Amino acid sequence: MPEVRRMTLAARPKNQVVFGVVDNTPKLQLDMTDERSVENLSRVCHFLMREGKACLRSLFDSKHPTDELTEHLASPDIHRTLRRLKIKDMLTEDDWQTLYPKEKSSVSADNYDLRLLLLLVKYTCDVTKPQPNGWMGDPEPRDDSQGAALQRLLGIQRELASLQTLKASAANRLFSRIAEQLQRLGHSGAADCMNAYKQDTSMDETESRFILGEFLVWYRQEVSQLKREIENQERKKKREEIPILQKRLKTRDLDTSETKKRQSVVGKATMDMSDKSRCQRWAHIKTGMVLAERLILDKYYEQLLNDVKADTVVEHLMNKEIITQDESTEIFSTLRNNEQMSTLIDFLVPKSGNVLDEFVESLKPKNEQVYQQMHQDYQAAKADILANKPQGLPYCNNILRERYSTAYAKWNPIPWYTKVETDIAEFYCQQQLLNLNGKSVNAFQVFDYKEGEKDPHTVVIEGDPGTGKSTLAKYMAYKWSLDENVFGRPFQLLILLDLKVTAPTVKVMMMEQLFGGDCKLAEREIWEVMNMHQASTLLIIDGYEDNLNDEMKSLLFENIMPELHILVFSQTNFTVRLMHRYQRKVILTGFAKSQAEEYVQKYVKLAKKPWEHFSSFLNKLVVAKKSTELQKLLDAAKKSQEPQRRRGSSESATSVTSAKPRDERPLERENTDKVSTKLSRSSSKGQGNDQQQQQDSNGENSNQSKIASLRHYSQVPLYCSFFCLLTDMRMSIDLNSPTTIVEQFVSCIKLKLIEREKESRFEANRAYAMLSERAMDTIKKGSATFILAKEDHMMTKFGLIQLATNLTAEDNQRYMFGNRLIQEYLAAKNLDTSGTDEASRFFQNMSMTPISYNVVVFYCSIRKSDNDTPATRELFAKILQYNKRRGKASRMKMPAATSPEDSQLVEGKIMDYQLSLECVAVMDMARRDLGKKIVESLPERFTVKHEGIIPRLSLTGLSKMIKFNHTTIQEVDLRLDLLAKETLEAYKSLATAMKTNVHIKTLRIYWTEKDLMADFLQTVCCPEPEDPANSTGQMEIRRKKPDQTGFHLKNLECIDESGKKLDQLSPKMLNNMREACSNMTKLETFAFQNCHHMSLVGSIIKNLPTKFADNLRILDFSGCQMSIVASQDLNGKLMESKSLEGLILANLKIDAMAFNTFIAAFSSNRTIVLLDLSGIRLDNVCFFSLSEALKINNKLEKLFLRQVPMDTRACKEVARILKINKMLKLLTVTQEVVSEEGRRVLGEESQTETRKNRAVVDGIGVEYRQRPTNERANTKRNPLSVK
């Protein structure tokens, strides 16, 4: 027997209704107190809807296969049919977005509900209409067609809705009738399915109500659609009667009274085309043509409808970009010419500019008479028309300033308190903006530039969800409305567009969001004003991560307005396409310093909440000295709590616990007494005393860690608002991950709705389930907005959704989520409750773009401990495939290796593997083989660099992957700058993970912050402290000996990118560097480059370990600045060296005395075979010291003196080296900086008998090579390749 298609709580209907709503919509007549009738009806409805939808889906797929669905829907016939259904209001805007989404890859019949699927089967699957009434009535009994079966099923639907009771016998008859019609539609197993639904006894009351709610929604939709079909039929019938009545009036010889009577009938029938109806139809249109232009159209209206062919004028108007392609399609959707002309005129009236002038010109070729008459009237009224048209720039400026000042003067910053309103400037708290160098930037100075720099026309503000991007954009618009020069330059137009509210063009978006209502300018005119005043126009784009229409793409990428200033707000990793378009990038991190506590103060004051609830929370946030006002508030809250403390801690705890649910606890436990500590100390001594101290220390460290995490998350405005609500509701705060924070907040919102709003728990849970489904639907469709029915008003009470951004429309019913983070979490929650099959389908169809990253990460975090499911396996299989594809693409870009020694490692950037890293970061890898496959798909050389802040979860995931034994990563390149301080703890975790990995052999650090670099090196190089234990009771941190560190790096390079010289070194930084250097005992290559801080360079050279000399092969200080003290220490290290083969000092900044100090070590060093002194300014004394040292040294094989100026005397010293040192194989100089006599001296020395095997190479320099003999053919290859 087939399985019943269950309708569990996880698969709730997309729309729900509340039973008993008093309105004009249809309701079920069933007595809901009759439990037996409710159970019978829910079973029948369940069978009808589930099996009916399955049967319709089978019919639809047979006609439109899934792999060809996109092409079928795009075919002209089907598109024209569906377009007409949309014009007739039988397809809603949501239906149209489902059928034709922005991303063609997301087209799927899985997204079609029962009503839409039934409509598509009727009109696109060649189903025969039932006889004799078509889709408008019951079919004949003898009609066995599929269309008749569909109509009979709809008849059964209406019958079910009208039942007051339903006994078992009547239910069985309905089951049989439904099964019979399903068999006619091709459902061969309808009888078996019917028996399964009959015998199903597992349906509870909650599921029954859900099924009946879904059935009622479907029934209401069908009734509304039937009404629209009837209205369309009546309208069509009335249009067909008009010419018949007019013809009869002309042909029949009627008396005057009969004629007047018939004319009155015609007048009523043609009311839609009368002067009265035209005035009513155009009166509400505030934009477009002025009154004089409308009077001209009104005067010639009848003549235009009767004498002018629509196709003769529409083409001309489309060429002039007055009529769009969509408008043209709608004009010709009707067959009669008068209807086409009427629709055309209705489209022209809301447009302004030279619309009427172009329309009159379009009449000239084939309607000369009408053209002459209208042209004459138009010229006569032209002066009046021009006088009444508003001036573009001042008019747009006034409208925009009025819109912003009105909308944001009464703004709700706390949406879960619906009655709260305030001025945005009063509630706004300063946010922290950082440039790519990590320096703070003023939000209103992002377009500033210094003399000699280019004007940055496009600026990107990048930030994670919840950091306040949309709030900052609105605040900027509001401040501009009060002062045009707030940006430091006179922007006369500021256009704020929210891309989450989609529109086909930027013009339509501006009209809908800003210029609609009573604006007297048309779309084209506003666009022309922008184009004419590009340099003084600022376009702010919020929500760049959402879909872009073609016009917005042209603005951003094709540079159609090159002087226009654009400010783009976007999430991290969404601005890759804009990389070559913007001139400046700024990072929004959240609140500026100590602004979180200011936000809490404003929150408490605006929401009118008791201060004593927030005193503990504020004390944890405040780091610096408290303000006087804040201190007074905290003192007052403290005094109000003293009576409770006097009654005893147990009573206080009891009262607090009783006011909360059982599973809730206070925010954090405050340890104000030390009683337990004293007791333990008195009862035990020695080691027991030490253990108690250790426990106290661990508890204190844990408490400090929690407070630090709380402060960190509170810097994000969205999380800070979450904490305020949780604190107000006296709920605990779990700081494990962002997912747990959002989960607590959503639970708190539901609790607030139940306890304070007095809503039933059942209705709150049902509304929450509907909200989750809307979130999932919007993610799938790629659209942030959705239509909300009146009966679904409960969803607005959560405070998670808001009306779509529209400052002009009053009756807008489009909603969107207040924050994308909430939308993505609810979508992930819906994905989790929908079952593994639904999740697997989502992952299969998911595009590997950042738009879906957060949903997947939230889902993985929700399924944290239960991740061995088909859905997660499908997800990780797709991630694995994506990672391998990225690795293959990187491998193809690499140059072909001529030998195994020249082969390069596959390189990958951290942001290219963001999804896999973050998924691993939030999941407990129950299946090690799954983690192993992901780790093995990572590149061999990993680059941890990004133009911005690298997400914390990505770094955490990388740390977790590095700890796997099967990791393939061998080299790591990372940048440590001021932006890295925002995720400092994540970088420390990465350093700890690298310490234990035996596969990573090379680490390159590009740093601008020396403290951060020293801290990272100390963590990588030094071992973890041992357990603090001491017989004397003193806590000591013991570190392992250097040979026990577990340090596995072979190559370490530190490149200074700061360019700083004179800043001071902190004791902590020097101590970290000392510890790090002392543990570098296993390095083979150490490079510290481009550092101009002599004290830092000297400290590193001084603290290099003694055992360092046993393994080190290459030492590189190129580009550094070295003092004489450092050169003395370097001299000592070189003399002690037993394995050093290469010393690279290219472009070293050093004086002659310091150079002579360390170069003397070469007289005793017997291991160095390569010396690079390129770019160093050497005098003749230095060359003499060099020749004296190398005269004794008989091991040096390569000497590089590129870009080293040499006169004749210096060249003689170099020639002396060539003459004495028999082992020197390669000498490289640059002939452009060598004197002519010096080149002659070097040339002569190279041609002597002892040097006859050496050759001189012109061009970049003179090269001297000695051909290796058979004895030297197998000499050891130089480990470092110097270019």
Automatic annotation (TrEMBL):
It is found in: Cytoplasm. Residues 635-703, 1263-1283 are annotated as: Disordered. GO terms for cellular component: cytoplasm. Residues 635-649, 660-676, 1264-1274 have a biased composition (Basic and acidic residues). It holds the Pfam family HEPN_DZIP3. Keywords: ATP-binding, Cytoplasm, Immunity, Innate immunity, Nucleotide-binding. Its main location: cytoplasm. GO terms for biological process: innate immune response; regulation of apoptotic process. The keyword Nucleotide-binding applies. Residues 289-378 form the CARD domain. PANTHER family: SLR5058 PROTEIN. This is CARD domain-containing protein.
